[in-house]
Amino acid sequence: MTKRNPENERIKRAYFNYLRNVEGKSETTLDKVAAAILRYEQATSFKSFKKFHHEHVNRFKKNLSKEKTRAGDPLAKATIDAILRMIKSFFVWLASQQGYKSRISYLDAAYFNNNAKDARVAHAKREIPYPSMEQCAHAFNQMPGATLIEQRNRAGFALLMLTGARDSALTSFRLKHVDLIESQIFQDARDVRTKNSKTFYTWFYPVGDTYLTCFTDWVNYLRKDMLFGPNDALFPKPKIEVVEGVGFQCTGLTGETYANASAFREMIKSTFVTAGLHPFFPHSFRKTLTKYGDQMCDTREQFKAWSMNLGHDSIDTTISAYLQISVERQGELIKGMSL
């Protein structure tokens, strides 16, 4: 296995520091950038970035086109496009750095551009499937609730319906963010992993007493029975211990939040699959709630409040992201209009 290039590692650290402290990029973004650059280095056998040659980029693009996912499928066009854009940005930055600007030009970075056809495919807007309110209710009613973890999962599903919170935020909520009296969640970016570190309030949507009762019971259980405090996790990790004669068992809850939302996303997906439905993910709930809000709201002001609840400053963001009209529906609406 080829060893990493120390010179490359030093300049990469400088770039990551730039992204973190100048552009304000998150650690998640930095991880993606680091993985993209590593892919390129592997394709060039870890040659120094100072030895850049256009042929290296051609070889790298060929490797990407042949690369497979864990499931054995080719990389998506959007994934390849994102990787190329991240590396291009890196080389644009390199072209301004001492020791590199005499060897790499801004025009060299342009060799990382995707071809026009694949770029169009990568950026094309597509209809994203989402569950109906009825499908959500069906899946929720099928969820077991005998164990602590099952009860926690039901409460997480319920809060998704009540707030449309992003899964990264949901898995980082703490009890102090919940106000049952005001029926709201405080998405405080100091503690909660919100998009773009935005802080805002979300009031519970009017989606039915079933979800509200489930979530309320869970919060009260944590506070009154488990004696959890304000800084304990709303959806905590399980406490796993070795039980004699049984092995590893869940013996309670730790009070700690999850580092990421991957386990929760998989839980929501499997919940729908078990219920005999499409494998929807948590983010699709935001479109479900937007469609429902479009039916529920009688005034622009009401829909503005519905939009703000999702963390959007502009109604336009909500409409463009979650309320697109299909071509077929576009035709139906136009044909149905009369003078």
Tell me briefly what this model is.
The chain has 339 residues and is mainly alpha-helical. It contains 15 helices and 5 strands.
Which quaternary structure do these chains form?
single chain
User: How large is the count of helical segments?
Assistant: 15
Number-wise, the strands total 5
Task: Please identify which CATH superfamily of the largest domain we are dealing with.
Answer: Intergrase catalytic core
Q: What's the level 1 CATH class of the largest domain?
A: Mainly Alpha
State the low-pLDDT regions, or none: none
CATH topology of the largest domain: hpI Integrase, Chain A
> Order of SSEs, N→C?
HHHHHHHHHEEEHEEHHHHH
Which range does the strand content fall in? 5-15%
Q: What is the structural class?
A: mainly alpha
Please characterize this protein's 3D structure:
- The protein has helices at 6-21, 27-43, 54-66, 77-94, 106-109, 116-123, 133-142, 148-163, 167-170, 209-225, 262-274, 284-296, 300-309, 315-322, 327-335; strands at 178-179, 184-187, 200-203, 238-243, 247-253.
- It has 339 residues and is mainly alpha-helical.
- The chain folds into two domains: 6-123; 133-282, Intergrase catalytic core (hpI Integrase, Chain A).
- The chain has a three-stranded antiparallel beta sheet with strand order 1-2-3, with no helix packed on it. The chain has a two-stranded antiparallel sheet with strand order 4-5.
- Helix 12 (284-296) crosses helix 14 (315-322).
- The N and C termini lie far apart (73 Å).
